[in-house]
């Protein structure tokens, strides 16, 4: 009886250890600023804030979310964002716009209570996702506010699509490329919409 119990415990322990050893490695991903300077410029005295940014609720999780076609989505167990997606999205967009405009006074939200930028860009993202092997899209609306958030200057929509080749690395690269593309479009529009003092 004791021998049978010991054998059963050893078998269970061995199965547990094999299960642990077989668990896939967890991979972590980040978005990166990668824009280059354009011809668009802002007056040096202008302060510009990027945010707040509102992302779809289904993306408010550490796991990377991909679409499976139709209304189905897949939440990856072992492919994880290295940080919270919304502040990372905001930070990278602000860095890209700063690089594009060669303008240092571009600040991602949230801002210190003692400081508010003169111009602010609020962004409502409808989609920042796609298929692991197929189209990946960024769809959003953005509003430029002046007078420290008191006056609407312009509201515009933006949509772009890139393709992923089936790996999570390629999927994140497509998302990064979409964000870079929007950064360039936004920088160009801001240079036209914000008066040169």
Automatic annotation (TrEMBL):
Per the record, the domain of life is: Bacteria
Q: Which InterPro entries match?
A: ABC_trans_aux (IPR005586)
ABC-type transport auxiliary lipoprotein component domain boundaries: 29-187
Signal sequence extent: 1-21
Decide whether keyword DNA damage is in the record: no
Q: Which UniProt keywords apply?
A: Signal
Entry protein name: Membrane integrity-associated transporter subunit PqiC
Q: Which organism does this record belong to?
A: Pontibacterium sinense
